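note to self — DONT lose this again. spent like an hour looking for the file last time. sequence + predicted structure for the chain T wanted, 139 res
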Amino acid sequence: MKSIKVIKIITSFVLLFGFLISISKVSAAEQNLSAEPIAEPNYTPPQKEGPGGGTPSANMTIAKSFSSAMGGGMRAPSNASKVASSLPKTWDKANTSVDLIVEGKVKQRRYYGSDKAAKQDIDYFHPDNGTHVFPHRHN
């Protein structure tokens, strides 16, 4: 009789241990909320702008970094995230990207140019009838 009780206790511990392991795997997966299909670029951060708006070389570095990021589908050196239903057509900072976060994932990345107006979107997911490949771009 004692051996049956010992077997039941050991079985209970094994089941509990397996359950705890599966919970920790789910928790670790939930912490990785980014739906980034593309790796981030290796870029040198642009120089800080001076009181007069920065030097031409600093502004050129910002523009090059921004163009490179947009071309590769990466975050711009100046990037923000917004939890909302959509992104605005203009942003308060030039040469930046903004990620639209829905249900903890990047749904869309919008690039804003030197005029602070939207230049391009990358959609990572949205309702679809099978006509889109993800991610895809819109100007």
